[in-house]
Amino acid sequence: MKKGIMVLLMVVASALVLGSPVRGADVIKLKAANYLPVTHKMSILTAKFCDEIKKRTDGRVQITYYPGGTLLSPVKMFNGIVTGITDMGVSHISYTRGRFPVTEVFAQPLGFPSGYVASKVSQDFYSKFKPAEWDSVQVLYINTSGPLIVQTISKPVRTLGDMKGLKLRATGETADVVKALGALPMPLEMPDVYESLRRAVIDGIMVDLSTLKYWKFADVVKNVTASWRLGTGYTFYFVMNKAKWNSLPPDIQKIFMEVAAETQDAQARLWNEMDIEGLDAFKKENGQLISLSEAEAEKWIKAVEPMMGSYKKEMVSKGFKADDVDGWFSFIKERIAYWKAEEKRRGVKAPF
Q1: CA 97, 102, 103: angle at the middle one, nearest 5?
Q2: Is the pLDDT of residue 197 over 90?
Q3: Helix (H/G/I), strand (E/B), else coil: 184
Q4: How far apart are CA 203 and CA 225, in angstroms?
Q5: What confidence score (pLDDT) does residue 25 get?
Q6: Average pLDDT over residues 1-19
Q7: Which of 184, 292, 311, 339 could potentially form a cystine with 120 if both were Cys, beta carbons 3.0 to 4.6 Å apart?
Q8: Are 337 and 117 in contact (CB under 8 A)?
Q9: Is 10 exposed, middle or buried (0-12, 13-18, 19+ CB in 10 A)?
């Protein structure tokens, strides 16, 4: 009888322990940073990631989220993650040109037709090649914006010749695209662009359509040139401090990667959604959308083609084999074709 009572008490005690809230000392507290405004859909998606981690770990992990550059600027983000100022963060590789030389292949004019396709391909590329440039962090996911297009505040750009002498905001490898098209790249951080456009410090910007709504460029930009066939984009990352990652229990790491995979898919779809919304916002402001003819688009493509040769030469000088670089190009082209078909099959709407 006594033995039975003891067993019953042990069962009850175990149930109480297992059913009790996570004690403060047991909670893993982390910080996440994002430079995008708190109302930006990509910023909201990061917040959802943090909430989902807390939910799926039953409160064992709690992430304090710092959006809007309140903890780190986009330029300082990666170093801030590596040094532990934040445990994880979001930015894009063009803010630190040269730090991610292999991944900078996504800034080449490879013909990405949409952000969905580009994001799926960039994640596939990372998963296959695992560039050593990311070894100092734990990559949660990679994604790439929709095609970069020309937006101007006054002068319409209808031909390649119209690009000559324009001052366009561009960072990283995108500056090379702007140069190849005859314009002058201006390396401004994104939070400074709106005022620079409003005050006509710059003539325009080469960036994805989503910015027309989510950075409010439709308020000041009067012309958009649909130069999407170049297929260049900005590649973003969401990564975590390596030491902090290694300190997490295996089951927590598993949950992180499961949520990251789901969030990457949501982000890929979000690029298309935001680009469509950006174009709609621009049209509501009676902006002028300029479409390039097939013949004119070919001139633009031909103008930027030398970039790929220069990139290959630069990578060989860094110790990579020419065949390796050709392999990257070939893999990307194959995955573009695959994900373009999948985009259609899955019913993901695209802006172009």
Answers
A1: 70
A2: yes
A3: strand
A4: 13
A5: 59
A6: 43
A7: 339
A8: no
A9: exposed
pLDDT of residue 24: 59
Whose structure tokens read 């391909």? 121
Give the Cα separation of 219 and 197 in Å (integer): 10
Asked if residue 159 lies in contact with residue 143, where contact means CB atoms within 8 angstroms, the answer is no
Q: For residue 267, what are its two tokens?
A: 């982000």
- 94-133 pLDDT tens trace: 999 999 999 999 999 999 999 999 999 999 999 999 999 9
Q: Whole-model pTM? A: 0.90
Please give the order of strands across the beta sheet that includes 235-241: 61-66, 28-34, 88-92, 235-241, 137-144
Asked if 329 and 231 count as a contact pair (C-beta separation under 8 A), the reply is no
Give the residues across from 141 on adjacent strands: 238
Residues contacting residue 41 through CB under 8 Å, at least 6 positions apart:
214, 270, 273, 274
Specify which residues 137 forms β-bridges with: 241
Q: In whole angstroms, give the CA distance from residue 10 to residue 284.
A: 68
Q: For the chain, how far is it from start to end, CA to CA, in angstroms? A: 77
Instruction: Give Cβ neighbours of residue 7 (< 8 Å, ≥ 6 apart).
Output: none
Count the Cβ atoms, other than its own, within 10 Å of residue 270.
20
With tokens 């990251």, the residue in question is 260
Within a 10 A sphere around the Cβ of 115, how many other Cβ atoms?
Answer: 30
Q: Please compute, for residue 327, the number of CA atoms within 13 A of its CA located in the half-sphere on the CB side.
A: 10
Task: Give me the helices (H) in 167-293, please.
Answer: 174-180, 193-198, 211-214, 242-247, 250-284
At 286, list the tokens. 């009676």
Q: Kind and range of the H or E element at 236?
A: strand 235-241
Quote the tokens at residue 60. 């064992």
Q: How much is the mean pLDDT over the chain? A: 93
